[in-house]
Structures are given as C-alpha cells and as structure tokens.
Design a protein that fits this description.
Aspartate Aminotransferase, domain 1; single chain; alpha/beta; four-stranded mixed beta sheet; 16 strands; seven-stranded mixed beta sheet; Aspartate Aminotransferase, domain 2
Length: about 425
C-alpha cells in the first residue's frame, strides 16, 4: 500500500493546489476497461485516461510489443541514428493521415507537438521571406495544451491568459462555431474569420484549430461544413492550416481522423494521446512536402530536437496499437458506442439541471446548467463503481473502444442517476 499522505503533501496533480488538493484514489492495477483501486474497488473506466487508452489497459498485444522492444532497446538518441520502430510508425502515419501530410516530427507530448507545429508555421514564413507573418488565428473555447505557445492559443477566458497576460504572445481569436455537427454552416458564421484574415493576412502565419471536436475547452461537435470553409479561407488568404487532432485522432470521432468528416487536408497536423494506446507519452507533428521544402531551402533546418525524440519503446507500442486498431472492427465498435450513448444519455435531458446532451463517435457529453463539484462527483461515481471525472458544467464519457454494452450501460446509468440525484 502506498502512503497517501506523502502524495497529498508532496505530489502535484493536474491543476491542483498543494494547500487544498482534491482527493485522489490510489490505483493498484488496471485491466481491460477496469481500474482497480488499492482497496480492491473495481471501476469501469469512462475516460480512457483522457482519450488515450483506446484498447483498454494491459492489452496482451501491446504488452507483448513493449516487452519485445525492451529486449532490443528502450531508448537511443535520434540525432544521427534511426530505428525500425520510428520508420514503421512514420510509414503508418503518412499512409493513414489525410493526403499530403508526408513529413513526420516525433516529440514527447501533445503540447510539444503543438509547439513544433507553430514553429513549423513560423519558420515556413521566415524561410519564405515574410517573417512578419508570425501570428496565429484561432477559435475561442479551444484547447491546445499547457506550454507557453500552446497556452497562447487556448481560450483567452477559460484558459490561463489572465495569469500570464504579459508573457503570452497576443494571437487573433474569432468566435467559436455554433452550427452543430451534421448541419450546414451559414457563411455568416465565418464572417468574423474572413474579416480577420482579410485585415491581418500579412501578420498571420496559420489558423490553428481542433477539427470537429472542440475538446477540453467546450466538448462541442461543430459542423464539418465549417471546417471545409475554414480550409478554403486559409487558401484564399494564404495562411497555413494547423489541425490539432491530439484528442480526435485514431477513431474517437467515428473517422480515423476528424478532418475526414470534411474531407480536408491541413498543412500541419498534431497527433498524440491515443497514439500509443495510452501506454507511453508520444506525439507527432506532420506536415506537407511544401512546408518541409520551404523551411529547408537554402540550407534551412527545423530548429527542434527533443532528447527523447522518437523514443523506440513508445514508437514500437504505437505501431502495435495502430495495427491493432486497424485489424479491429473499430468503425462498428464506435458506431455501436455512439448509438448506445445517444439512447442512454438522452433521458438526462428530463432533468432540469441538464442544458444539453451531445454525442459523436465514442464521445458522450452531458452539459449541466451549473458547474458540478469535481470532488463530490468523483466520490459519487466511485461509489457507483465507475470512473468519470467531470469538469465545470461538463459530465462526459470517452470510454475505451473495447467496452461491452453492459459496462457502457453502467457508465450511462451512473450519469443519469447523478444528474437526477440533486434535481
Ligand atoms: C490533450 C490535448 C493537448 C495537449 O496534449 P498533452 O499531451 O497533454 O500535452 C493539445 N491539444 C488537444 C486538442 C488536446 O486534447
């Protein structure tokens, strides 16, 4: 058993205070869709460890890939050296991502892959003789990570801008989309984006956005038509398009990548989270040959190179995870999860505390009128034998794709009872 007081006194958790930390639960192990606490409690996982554990925990194929790679090497530097796991993963990513994304930069986490994407965009215009194009345009209510360049494109209100106002680069923001997924989007909804691009195209390097699913900032699914029109505007005003697929990549929205809903290719794309099936931290930034060629002409180099770049252990597991996904009936699994989430979460609307229910792919969202207490909600859900971690007004599910209908029903039932309990 661990000493919980050491954790409380010494370990930071995500977004917590050391004076008044939120309660944490000690996990002994996890298997399939179940997380086992040290006291023996089994919890059905509704979060896939923040979008990542798409195959569940301790999948035999991924465990075997990890062990096999450990017997070769867990790490070796990527400066001047290469290895099969990196090459094989690169091949898969080039093949599977939208057409044109042919170059791959491996990094350690989603936030860093966003930094690299921004650096690619800025270096593209520096190399192209337009160094004044060094600002980004993004959507309100977005989330792109916690490092400084990424923070600067997170929502200015719910993000951390007030805290770091003097430090963050001032970027351009336009209103978030309001046409829901599955609808056409009136051109008026892009009027502000068009005006901003028209007025500031000499300063704007790229538009960065989360395709289709605005995640941590909002948990909202917007019209594919909106994304299609953004792509056209980027071309019209000569700015690059960066798609942050860190949350959406590898099937979560019902397509392998969310850009496919609009049939578009961005110039630069970030993937992370589910890349290794939740085993290790790894991310990648892809870009077109055009971006690579511009940066590299006249002897230019991309100025980035993390110590653990293309970590072989992480790459080997990522290769195994992607192959496992492709060999599975993932489209049917996600379609089945989608229809079950839809039918079992819709009754939440009968509660006066609930403002909206949204479902896309293997993502189910119940938006409340008022923020819920995370600590209380967690305690409630653990008592129900499920692991669900709301934030703000959002109670949501993004389970591993392998979840059974019975286990999924326990998750949706717990949410339904939760929203009914205090009404
Ligand atoms: C989680 C996330 C990130 C940040 O990834 P980390 O691995 O946490 O650094 C960036 N963008 C989106 C859309 C995300 O969901």
């Amino acid at each position: 058993m661990i000493d919980p007081s050491f954790d409380k006194d010494h370990l930071w958790h995500p977004y917590t205070s050391m004076q008044n930390p939120l309660p944490v639960y000690a996990v002994s192990h996890a298997q399939g869709v179940r997380i086992y606490l040290e006291d023996g409690t089994a919890l059905i996982d509704g979060m896939a460890s923040w979008w990542s554990a798409i195959h569940g925990y301790r999948h035999p194929v991924l465990d075997a890939a990890a062990k096999a790679q450990l017997d070769r090497m867990s790490h070796v530097m990527f400066g001047g050296l290469t290895h099969a796991p990196a090459v094989e993963l690169g091949q898969l990513l080039v093949q599977l991502t939208p057409p044109g994304l042919d170059l791959v930069f491996f990094s350690d986490s989603g936030s860093v892959s966003v930094e690299v994407a921004i650096k690619l965009a800025l270096q593209y215009w520096i190399a192209g003789g337009q160094p004044g194009k060094n600002r980004l345009l993004t959507l309100r209510k977005g989330y792109h990570g916690d490092t400084f360049a990424a923070m600067a494109v997170c929502d200015p209100v719910t993000g951390m801008h007030h805290l770091f106002n003097d430090v963050l680069t001032k970027q351009f923001f336009v209103s978030e989309p309001h046409s829901p997924f599955g609808t056409e989007c009136p051109a008026t909804e892009l009027a502000e984006l068009r005006t901003t691009l028209a007025r500031h195209q000499q300063q704007i390097a790229a538009v960065i956005l989360e395709p289709i699913v605005q995640g941590a900032g909002r948990m909202y699914f917007y019209a594919a038509d909106y994304l299609l029109q953004v792509r056209a505007l980027c071309d019209e005003f000569n700015v690059l398009l960066i798609a942050d697929e860190i949350a959406t990549g590898f099937g979560r929205s019902g397509k392998l990548f969310a850009c496919e809903h609009a049939n578009i290719s961005p110039d630069i794309m970030c993937v992370g989270k589910a890349l290794t099936g939740g085993y290790l931290t790894l991310a990648a930034t892809l870009c077109t040959q055009q971006v690579g060629a511009m940066i590299s002409h006249n002897g230019g180099v991309l100025m980035h190179g993390p110590t653990f770049m293309a970590n072989p252990l992480a790459c080997a597991i990522a290769v195994a995870s992607i192959k496992l996904l492709l060999a599975s009936p993932w489209q049917q699994q996600i379609a089945a999860i989608e229809s079950q989430l839809y039918s079992e979460l819709t009754p939440c609307l009968l509660s006066s505390r609930v403002a909206a229910v949204r479902v896309l792919g293997a993502i189910g969202v119940v938006e409340m009128h008022e923020p819920v207490s995370m600590a209380e909600a967690q305690r409630y859900f653990v008592g129900q034998g499920v692991w669900i971690r709301p934030f703000g007004k959002l109670v949501y599910l993004m389970p591993p794709y392998i979840i059974s209908p019975e286990d999924l029903r326990q998750l949706t039932t717990a949410i339904l009872q939760f929203v009914q309990s205090a009404s």
